[in-house]
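Amino Acid Chain and Its Fold in Token Form
===========================================
Scope: a single protein chain, as residues and as a discrete description of its fold.
Amino acid sequence: labelled as such and written in the usual single-letter residue code.
Position: the record begins directly beneath this header, with no further notes in between.
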Amino acid sequence: MYGIFMECWVIFKLYGGNGYLLALFVASLIYLLIAEKDNRKRLVIAVAPFMVIVGFFIPYTRIAYVAVLSDGGDTYYRIMWLIPMGACIAYTGCKLFMNHKRIGLIVVSVLIMLCGSIVYKNQYMYKAENAYHIPQVVVDVCDVISPGEDEPRVRAVFPSELLQFVRQYDTNILMPYGREMVVPQWDYYNAVHEVFEKPEVINAEKLLEATRLTQCRYIVLNESRKIDVALDEMGLTLVDNVGGYNIYEDPEYAQ
């Protein structure tokens, strides 16, 4: 039981990222349990989240969750989605303003400056290039490989800098892995990602072995990436070059 509890503790810490958000949330819960006088509000925004957290750490909850769901071991963290963390913290900030105007303003302002970060420094933040608010190169690549109306969905490998935008634009394009592979702390394993992203020089033979096991029709490769043997020499067809990305089609899965 202790081992299961520690697994839950690790999941809880990973869910909280740098820890500031979890610290604010716990402090907010404590404050609202004491300061909120409206019992209905306190029940919804303080007592219920507290009960969810307690249930999350009870080993029997995890055992039952994993027993019911086939992928329960990988998705147990989603119980945390039931917690209105953002609403709880924001409501606590408003309560501080209402009850302690000057002190509340100072405390909330300091917390925002210390715990927040500039969103525009994120590596995935781009200046809008189109109505979809995703990089234009993703739109252009997807337009090349997207299936027609009466055709089945296709599977394609995308570089990590593009893959999180694909589903936002075209759900008819499937991928062997998604954003979970580019989050270091999750440390997931995927055979295609292992040979496509990790080595400095891609081994073409191993790449094709992995992509064919997952029935990938297309490989989108940044032309700056090093590969030991050109994919067209391995039997693939170079369909197009879009924005510095070569699009290869595997004839084994071509329609």
Q: What stands out?
A: Residues 2-116 form one domain.
